Automatic annotation (TrEMBL):
Protein name per the record: R3H domain and coiled-coil containing 1 like
Residues of the signal peptide: none
Superkingdom, natural source: Eukaryota
Disordered: annotated span: 164-184
InterPro entries, alphabetized: Nucleotide-bd_a/b_plait_sf, R3HC1/R3HCL
Amino acid sequence: MLSGTMKNRESIQEPRFDYYNHEVSDIDLSDCEFPHVIEIYDFPQEFRTEDLLRVFCSYQKKGFDIKWVDDTHALGVFSSPITARDALGSKHTMVKIRPLSQATRAAKAKARAYAEFLQPAKERPETSAALARRLVISALGVRSKQSKTEREAELKKLQEARERKRLEAKQREDVWEGRDQSAV
């Protein structure tokens, strides 16, 4: 009875999405998204991190790091956009460089995926083992084998570092507020 009332019809439904011819759209990174990152490319496959660091040795003190994309592409992470722009203006014989906005799809994808690790490179601050030594000694309940002069020298070094940090913060604030630096 049911078969008599319904017409036997076949219909082919067209797929909504064509998965066979899918193209990944180009990752759009504007210049303002990662202005401190550049793409380093077209260098020999034999290059290692040390070789790239040697090429950009003049930026080491200002803060510079390498993140690899593949054998012939890497991302150069600088401490500031100004330093990155300066590096883009320089010519290198063994490598080519360009802004991340003009980089390959793989480099842009790597930058997107590792965005939290591409923060501007900063030098590690001076450290001291004094606190760690004190914590370990107190936890173990033993006496320190460090002489009084060594402890005093370490304490003096820490105080100098604190004073230097305080002075740098004051100078930054003075510059920001437009105060005269020559009076300091």
